[in-house]
Amino acid sequence: MSAKKQARLVAITHSTGSHLRGWRHPNTPARPATDVKAFIEVVQELERGLFDALFLSETTGTMPGPAEAHQHDSMVNESLDPTLLLSAIASATRHIGLITTASTSLTQPYSLARLLASLDHLSGGRAGWNVVTSRFETEARNFGLDAQLLRAPERYDVAAEFVDVVKGLWDSFDDDAFVHDREKGQVFDPVRVQPLDHRGRRFRVSGSLDIARPPQGHPIILQAGMSEAGRELTAREADLALASGGGWHAREAREDVRRRAAAHGRDPDTLVVLAVFPSVLVADTRAEAEAQLREFTALLHPAERQQHGILAGTAADIADIIEDWLDGDAADGFAVGFPYLQGPVAAFTRLVVPELQRRGRFRTAYAGATLRENLGLPRPARRVPE
């Protein structure tokens, strides 16, 4: 009998939880966006539950429209820089992956390549990058632009070149280029360094990165866009992909990006597709889970109380869905959100994780030291510019 397919688990959240109204729950800290200590405790609980990674999403700047329209939303108005927050979390954890969000529209490849390489070194090989293409005019104006002039698929053309440049910068040095030979007074072997000298449609980058090749070779690349252009970028460059929607939609998306990856000469098994559970509440009984759901729903505006996107049930209920999606090839794993963090995260690790382990669907220990190792993904060889 073949081994059962095991799930990968990634927590997708904000410091207030994954729901716009999560900050209103009484178990949430009074200032959740800046209570770093409380957030680190949540991430440590995720690590005890053997989650592959924590994924922090963000939008740079407030949402479009008048302030009155968003005055009730904490996550779009009050947030720390995700990469700096993950750097703090890195020192308080040992195994869980740390995936930040950064836009290819509002930064430069060199500065981002250096930042992500630094996070990978600081965390011992646990960094990841959620590639986004910003589209809001409010974001553009924060960076001195009149508007986001590019539309899809042009934004994704820029993103593809951007990611290619970043990977090239990570490959500036051979893995063993830094010799630190005190006797010879030599820091690195110049034969083992290759400046990028990129001249593309959008970017020109001439030098090499001023940091050793990251422990993972390349930090993990995540891509969440499932438009035509987004799927092409995923197939070319991503290690992780998010496929939102029901089981059939997730299966179609997974099959499609795997097919496209093969067309780009990649092994489809090096692309992990995660189905998205936006918000999960789990309890010992269905009655308790439904009571928690009613309690949270009472915090919402009446217009928000239908299609709230919260999955509530027992550990067996959640595990049944996960098994069905795994066996139906709808997903390789799951990006799990929690409407608020203090309580639901601990309930998931206490109830759902052991249930999945009992069914042979989830690990009982981390497989390795890096995020790539825990995801079962190979470390990329260094690409030398032609």
Automatic annotation (TrEMBL):
Entry's family note: Belongs to the NtaA/SnaA/DszA monooxygenase family.
Pfam families xrefs: Bac_luciferase (PF00296)
The name this protein goes by in its record: Luciferase-like domain-containing protein
Domain of life: Bacteria
Binding site for FMN: T101, Y156, S227
Luciferase-like domain location: 24-329
SUPFAM superfamilies with a match to the protein in the record: Bacterial luciferase-like
Signal peptide: none
Keywords tagged on the record: Flavoprotein, FMN, Monooxygenase, Oxidoreductase
GO MF assignments: monooxygenase activity; oxidoreductase activity, acting on paired donors, with incorporation or reduction of molecular oxygen
Native organism: Acrocarpospora macrocephala
InterPro entries for the chain: Diverse_substr_monoxygenases (IPR051260), Luciferase-like_dom (IPR011251), Luciferase-like_sf (IPR036661), NTA_MOA (IPR016215)
